[in-house]
Each structure stands twice: as C-alpha cells, then as structure tokens.
Amino acid sequence: MIESTHRPSKVVVDLSAIEYNVKQELARLNDEQVLFAVVKANAYGHGAIKVAQAAEKAGATGFCVSNLDEALELREAGITLPILVLSYVSPNYIDLAISQSISLTAPSLEWLKQVEETLAEKPMMNPLSVHLKIDTGMGRIGLRDEDEMVQSKELFVLSNYMTLDGIFTHFSSADTKDTTYFELQQQRFTRAMDIFSDLEIRYIHTSNSATALWHDAWNSNLIRFGDALYGLNPSGKALDLPYELKPALSLTTELIHVKQVSAGEKIGYGATYTAEKEEWIGTLPIGYADGLIRQFQGYKVIIDGEYAEIVGRVCMDQCMIRLPKRYDVGTPVTIFGKNGTLENTLDDAAEFIGTINYEIVCGLTDRLPRYYLNERINN
Ligand SMILES: *Cc1c(COP(=O)(O)O)cnc(C)c1O
C-alpha cells in the first residue's frame, strides 16, 4: 500500500521517548545484562529502522525481529548489531542468514537436524548462530521433550556448522497478578537449563517486557524489550508500571469538512446515527483502511482540547465526529495521544474496542505516513 502523504492523517513517533524507555530499563540491569530492542512488525507499527537507530543510540546492543525479511531490512539500513529472528525460518534460507550474520531460533530438534544436513553440503560457509527455544508452556514453538533437549545438545557439541549462542523461553503470563503459571514455566526452564549446564552459552533469556518489568528479568542476561520500548504497558491496565515509560506514538489528523445538521438527520452507512438536535458534524480523512477499525464507532477523539465522539459507522477512508461547536476545516484532531490537557492512551483505545495496545499499533497500516520527532542525527 502506498503511503498517503498528501493527506493530513499521520502517525507521529517521538524518538526521544524510545530512547528514554531504553535508558529506564538499562538503569535497572546489571553489567552482565544486555537489552535487545524487539522491532518486529515494523517496530509495532512505529517504523523499524528509525526505532532501531534510536534504541541503538540509547544503549540497546541488538535486535529481535520475527522473520528473515525484517532482519534483512535492518541490515540493508546499515545496522550491524546482532539480530535474532524469534520465529521459524525455513532451512532453505540459512545461507542468507549466515551471510548477513543473523541469528536464528531453533524451534525443534527436527529443524536442527535439517539445518545440520543442509550445511554439511556447504562446508565453506561460516557456522550458523542459533538460539535454542524451549517451550515451557507457551505452546507455540520450541522443544518440550527433555530427551530431545539432550539430543540437540549432543548435536551442537559435535556440529561444525552451528554454534549455540543462546537458549531461551517465552512466558505466556508474566503480566498478570496470578503468578501460578509463570512459576510453572520457571520450573520447566530451570530443568531445561540443567541439561545444558555444562555448556558455555552466551545468552540465556526469558524476559519479554513483562518479565523484565515485573519479574526482575528472571534468569536473563538478555532482555527482549518490546512493548515497553514503545512506552506501552504490556499488561494493559492490569499491573502498574514499576517505573515511568513514555508512549512514543500519536495518531493525528485534521478536519476536512464541517457542517451543521438538523435534528433527525442521519450520518454514515446504515444510517445508524441520528442527530438529536442541531449538531456540528466534522469529517476526518481516516478509516478502517488505516487501522481505525469499525469498532471505533462511539470512541472519542480530541479536538482543541475537547472530546468529540465518532458518530455513525467508520468508513474505509473517512469517519465523522460530533463537534462541541463549529471548527474550521484544517483544525487538528488527535485520535491517540495528547491534545490540550486531554490524552487518549492506547490502553483506553484498546479497552474501548476490546483488544490490547499491541494490536492497535500493529494494525496501523502503511497508508499512514510515519513522521519522527527528536531524531538525533549525531550522538
Ligand atoms: C514479541 C516477542 C517479545 C517481545 O514481547 P513484549 O511483550 O512486546 O515485550 C519477546 N519475545 C518473544 C519470543 C516475542 O515473540
């Protein structure tokens, strides 16, 4: 989808907030612990390259992405720090990973065997850097069976083609008050680590943002810092943050049309909204094709420091709001972020449509241009 720059709707990312959030977390870590910025899915919709550069300036020493293309995007932008792909990469593409110094996640013993076989036919290549994933209860990817862990360890010990640079797991419930399931996963990871205890492995990591924030980065010398990097609370509103985070993203637009309608007039597809009295109605150039999905009907945006409700159905490219009074075309409107003394947080928005802040930012489509504040060109 082409970026629409001749339209006032835009995502604005404050890179100084990204830097601030990285520094806040780094201040809590010890000398052995490093922070990798998780910039998958175009940095949760914020823009991978700019966020990665800001995170690096603030002290991040590596990156996590979800697939090989996202890793290659960072390399093409000139980023040379370590990159770990967190999800499955087909053994067909390991040449590319090796040549670009990208570490891959081993999701299974079977994958390790396939990679070993593939690389045995190409003895001239450098070894592949691998982080072994242990599935302690997320149920997504990783080794679950202790026998397979023992076999994979033997494979690494003998392999000339792969180096075991990391071993890791992912918690499914590090962001809830009830820690029962978190503790079960901890026990399983501890057992898995016993199997590998006689190997020297550079990175041991269990910590997404939530584990870093609320479980003291348990058993991690590498933190996979995602949601909190963007200033968002991974628990939504369930748990308080242990330190301040600054949200980096705002979504803003402008009025493109203003009119007064009389009582009884209808607005939008399906004529679902009826004006109760004489009302000022504004039109915004943003809709569900931008990620402002139809569930946002009834949500309040902010204009001139006052709330204005989205009335009628959200269209593909536009939506209508009920204005507190007449405003000129071109008046700025904030959908997410601060305006006057008011703020629409991503958690308010997520609560409104019944999802999590992650899904809203990832759902902002490529049609919205990304603009950056406080970019530091030099150190
Ligand atoms: C996405 C992801 C993270 C980052 O999670 P946050 O909750 O955004 O910090 C960490 N680890 C893995 C394996 C992931 O897939």
Automatic annotation (TrEMBL):
Query: InterPro entries this protein is in?
Result: Ala_racemase, Ala_racemase/Decarboxylase_C, Ala_racemase_C, Ala_racemase_N, Ala_racemase_pyridoxalP-BS, PLP-binding_barrel
Cross-referenced NCBIfam families, in alphabetical order? alr (TIGR00492)
Residues bearing N6-(pyridoxal phosphate)lysine are: K40
- The EC code for this enzyme is 5.1.1.1
List the Gene Ontology MF annotations in alphabetical order. Answer: alanine racemase activity; pyridoxal phosphate binding
Alanine racemase C-terminal domain sequence ranges: 248-373
Which reaction does this enzyme catalyse, per its entry? L-alanine = D-alanine
SUPFAM superfamilies, A to Z:
Alanine racemase C-terminal domain-like (SSF50621), PLP-binding barrel (SSF51419)
Active-site residue list? K40, Y269
Please give the pathway this protein is involved in: Amino-acid biosynthesis; D-alanine biosynthesis; D-alanine from L-alanine: step 1/1
The UniProt annotation places substrate binding at: R140, M316
Membrane topology qualifier? Multi-pass membrane protein
Which family is annotated?
Answer: In the C-terminal section; belongs to the alanine racemase family.
For this entry, the protein name equals Alanine racemase
Q: What is its main location?
A: membrane
Q: Name one GO biological process term.
A: peptidoglycan biosynthetic process
Bilayer-crossing regions = none
Cellular compartments annotated = Cell membrane
Which Gene Ontology CC terms are recorded? Answer: cytosol; plasma membrane
Alphabetical list of HAMAP family matching this protein: Ala_racemase
Q: Does the keyword Cell membrane apply?
A: yes
Task: Please report the organism this UniProt entry assigns to the protein.
Answer: Vagococcus teuberi
